[in-house]
Amino acid sequence: MLILLLGPDGFSKRQYVQEQAAKTSSVAVFFAADEMPPVDSLTGADLFSKAGVFVLSGLIEKFNQLEVVERLVASKNQIIFIEEKLDKRLSANKNLLANKNIAVKEFILPRDKELNNWIANRAKFYHGKISPAAVEELAKRLGRDQAKETKAGGKVVAVEEVYNLWQADAEIQKLLALAAGREISAQDVKSLISENAEIDVFDITNAIADGQKQTALELLHRHLKNQAGADEKGSIIQLNALLSEQFRNVAMVQDFISQKKSESQILEATGWKSGRLFVMKKVAQKFAPKKVLEFLAKLAALDEELKSTSTPPKVLLDLIVSQLLL
Description:
The chain is α/β, with parallel strands linked by helices. It has helices at 10-21, 39-43, 60-63, 66-74, 91-98, 113-125, 132-142, 165-179, 186-192, 198-209, 213-226, 232-258, 263-270, 274-284, 289-308, 313-324; strands at residues 2-6, 27-31, 53-57, 78-82, 103-106, 148-152, 155-160. The strands form 2 sheets. The chain has a 5-stranded parallel β-sheet with strand order 2-3-4-1-5. A two-stranded antiparallel sheet has the order 6-7.
């Protein structure tokens, strides 16, 4: 039996795999970086003729030949391929998705109020209580309303959330530990959970890439304002680290492109989602590689300056970002 798990929700995919694995004592997991298992080992039964579960992450293209697929489909074993998405332009993938003997399951992250429902249900799963106001506050802080939309021809063709359910689940467990049996309140969320900062950094990077100086500076200051409880210097050191990471990613993408690496090769090397790679490639096209490396050097100098001098931190940050926009 061949099962194909698609979509960006890795948390729910893992739950599905665990449920299937619990039904058998024979489970094997393979990743793209591992040595590829032979087809015979996937389709064969053990000594007691018991069906097993094989999980292959990022490996479908290695087995996507008609005769191989037919053997996997006919096997008594559950052979589960995990992919974020398939390129539907390829005929082999079209045939795979059209094959009615293959179980295709789509795992999409909950959007809008669906995330609120997921949070409330997850708290119940842990035998905890959470107020509606706390659910709303946590959903907002996770980035529920900050989805990135990709448009083509004026239509939304892709949506990428800034959160994942691994993160949401971890935050719920922290809140339950804090509440210690009582109902989680909105104030608990505000005091313990910081707002998802990644979207701010992406927005800042995009504003810099588009040459929008005023917008970039406003976003910088808004991000710093949201860092409740942290001193200004500490917040700027943290923001500097986030910006450095973003521009190292830009430099890395530019290097991959110069080496003519395929999208699948880049995704395997970085572990990113395809939506993130799409955004980073767009940003990378807007900067000269030399300028990116120069900016990274300036951010490194800023970090040293922040930690060794008494110059107002915000002045230094504004100065360096302004230089990038010249």
